[in-house]
Amino acid sequence: MSRSKDFFQKVYEITKQIPRGKVTTYGDIAEACGIRSAARTVGWALNGCGPDVPAHRVVNRYGALTGKIHFGDPNLMEELLRSEGVTFDEKGCVRLDKHLWKPKKKTSRKRRSR
Fold first, then answer.
1. Of 36, 70, 79, 82, which is most buried by a Cβ count within 10 Å?
2. Short-list 76, 57, 61, 60, CA closest to 19
3. Digit-coded pLDDT (tens) for 41-52
4. Positive/negative CA dihedral, 100, 104, 105, 106
């Protein structure tokens, strides 16, 4: 499997773990995959995911719905989140103080030398 496919699979696995009514950020997923600087690549991966991946639960670091353009209807992402009980502030951003879910960070396994 190529590195990008392997990374994309990790993104999908983490995104599938986001509980209903919660969101996480592109950066948090990238960090959990072990590459904090890959937030844009996380977005790219989610742009091509299947319907079994709840990509609507991934927002930018401010809670803005930057991925909504990829849902066909520009209101669909917000509607899906609202249907799960997610609330928004006056600027239209998700209330991260109430709804942010952080994936577990990737832990590196270090080999011990003998």
1. 70
2. 57
3. 999 999 989 999
4. negative
Statement: the pTM of the whole predicted model exceeds 0.90: no
- Who contacts 94 (Cβ-Cβ below 8 Å, separation ≥6)? 23, 59, 63, 64, 65, 81, 86, 87, 88
User: What is residue 8's DSSP assignment?
Assistant: H
The encoded tokens of residue 37 equal 């600087």
> Are the C-beta atoms of 100 and 24 separated by less than 8 Å?
yes
Cβ count within 10 A of residue 57 = 25
The answer to whether 63 and 93 have CB atoms below 8 angstroms apart is yes
Report the distance separating Cα 19 and Cα 107, nearest Å: 22
Residue with tokens 């991966």: 45
What are the Cα distances from residue 48, in Å, to 7, 23, 41, 52, 60? Answer: 13, 19, 11, 12, 17
What is the distance between the alpha carbons of residues 73 and 11, in angstroms, rounded to a whole number? 23
